[in-house]
Amino acid sequence: MELYGATLSWTSSISLPIHIAQPPSIWGIKRFRLFCLNNIKNVSDETQKDNRMVVSITGATGFIGKRLVQRLHADNHRICVLTRSKSKAQLVFPAKEFPGILIAEEPEWKDCIQGSNAVVNLAGMPISTRWSFEIKQEIKDSRISVTSKVVDIINNTQDDVRPSVLVSATAVGYYGTSETNVFDEQSPSGNDYLAEVCREWEARALKVNKDVRLALIRIGVVLGKDGGALAKMIPIFMMFAGGPLGSGKQWFSWIHLDDIVNLIYEALSNPSYKGVINGTSPNPVRLAELCEQLGKIMGRPSWLPVPDFALKAVLGEGATVVLEGQKVLPARATELGFSFKYPFVKDALKAILSS
Ligand SMILES: NC(=O)c1ccc[n+]([C@@H]2O[C@H](COP(=O)([O-])OP(=O)(O)OC[C@H]3O[C@@H](n4cnc5c(N)ncnc54)[C@H](OP(=O)(O)O)[C@@H]3O)[C@@H](O)[C@H]2O)c1
After folding, report:
1. What pairing do the DSSP bridges indicate for beta strands 251-252 and 118-121?
2. Is the Cβ atom of 315 under 6 angstroms away from ligand 1?
3. For position 3, what pLDDT does the model report?
4. What are the DUF1731 domain coordinates in residue numbering (predicted)?
5. Whose CA is nearest to atom 11 of ligand 1?
6. 226 alpha carbon to ligand 1 midpoint, in Å?
7. What is the pLDDT of residues 153-211, one digit of tens each?
8. 51-354: what CATH class?
9. Bigger pLDDT: 249 or 120?
10. Fewest CB within a 10 Å sphere: which of 48, 130, 269, 326?
């Protein structure tokens, strides 16, 4: 690690060169000093076993990112939150609860990325909105521009300070929708709007320098309490006494928040995780089954179908992800031996609703 001319290294297993060009402009002198002091103190107890990473994360303030940061922080990894708004990120990650986390707005992303040995790219405008022409453009552009920026920074970094891994989000929307087909990582892309967004999003990530290990995670519908589609669906479900949504035959390729975070975490540290990896549970369900399980857990008999318009009212055209859907299997994660904490939707929902 290079700090104003002093060259140190945090781990012997991972070469971790950090070059911090203008630290005070990024973190403020006080925090930066604290950062340096901590690092220098920690250098002395480095061992071969010390696998701490420095991870820069875009979209860290979102539903998945927040939990990822909590996990990485709890395991003592160093984190740079790459955000559009420092003040918002400071509210999400108060210094008291997350000491040592660095928060950087766009002009400082370069310094953070060059000081990291891993990057996670999760940023993108939420799709659960009304899709006007302008919003559709923004949904796509937000993903493409952040991914391009991150990739350009990585590619323009000297070999010796370049992060060695990029884990970049994409979505199962890549495959298009179908009630009958089963998709895995080898399947072709669909031909609807979300498939096009995912293809272009992935294409930007694929431009990363070939020496950087790239894991593209095609994420399914993430289930958790404090965000994502489920949190929005539950009140509607309650209002309509909890019957199936739409026809109920559509496939719902879901994953519990803990599992997607574990998969990203594993992809950061395990060199076998590269290329496209579906981030879905091994047991997708038809929507009717999801609603039935949800109804049982919430003590709501599944008897009145929830009309499409109600779901569209809260999810906007983003509801197509739920109302049309696709059956996606995590073939690569299974091959890699990834262990799902919640392989079945019943257990996932129980855990979420009882927490
Ligand atoms: N949750 C799911 O079910 C799911 C399913 C499939 C794929 N994904 C993908 O996984 C990624 C993370 O999902 P999430 O649910 O955690 O997302 P999220 O809660 O909506 O958060 C995404 C983050 O992206 C940044 N962002 C928002 N609007 C942006 C814009 N217009 N331009 C640039 N950045 C913007 C924000 O960070 P700052 O404000 O700090 O910049 C925000 O916290 C997303 O790209 C999403 O498409 C999620």
Report:
1. unpaired
2. no
3. 27
4. 306-352
5. 122
6. 14
7. 999 999 999 999 999 999 999 999 999 999 999 999 999 999 999 999 999 999 999 99
8. alpha beta
9. 120
10. 48
